[in-house]
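SCO family protein
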Amino acid sequence: MRPIIHASLFLLSLLVFACSHDHENGIDPEHAPGYLQHHPVDPESGLILVDTLGYPGNHPTDPVTGEVVPEPVRDWKYVDQSNRPFGTEDLRGKVYVADFFFTSCPTICPKVKSQMLRLEERFRDNPDFRLVSFTIDPKRDTPERMTEYAAKLGIEDFDRWRFIHGDKFEIYDLDEDYLSVALENSGAPGGFDHSGYLVLVDREGFVRSYASGLDEEEVTHLMEDAQLLLDQEDGSAR
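Structure:
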């Protein structure tokens, strides 16, 4: 049995070594978990940099250099669950995570919201962190109904976590900026399709990272990405 124990210890040491990466070494893309694939790659080493954030998604590129020219999320302004005007202008200088949901969702929303609650708990004492949940069913999800929904989740701070009510078709377009999917589908459970993504946005309004709200490990990594941005007071994490 002793050789097996030694082998197990050896494998464990490899795992520890692999997890104790830094900015200079990074991770080989072939062996990196899927949720790291949207991190930038060091042009010299070809390794994924885990302590630096890039710009995931479909951004325009410079026609001459081919370099990505990132664009921020488009400006929007609607009302929150307390019927207060709220929009991108109110989020400038804040790091936030956004998701798309509807209160009568019978499938993924409860799981996704449980992960949003993890984020709320992790960063509840940080004044620069926010959560934003857009309803994709504004006809039924009135501000009053979303207030009841938020209360059932146990949310007490309606300034830190905003539930957004706005024009349905505008929000269906807006979801593309947040790398999400939100649309009506009579064949889908509850009548809507949505991705369940949690999307991290920096202080200047640029999407910087994302995770599946159905995968606890991915959300744990998203927390690390959020901390990177929060540690950069002037937005210099870019």
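The first strand starts at residue 77 and ends at 79.
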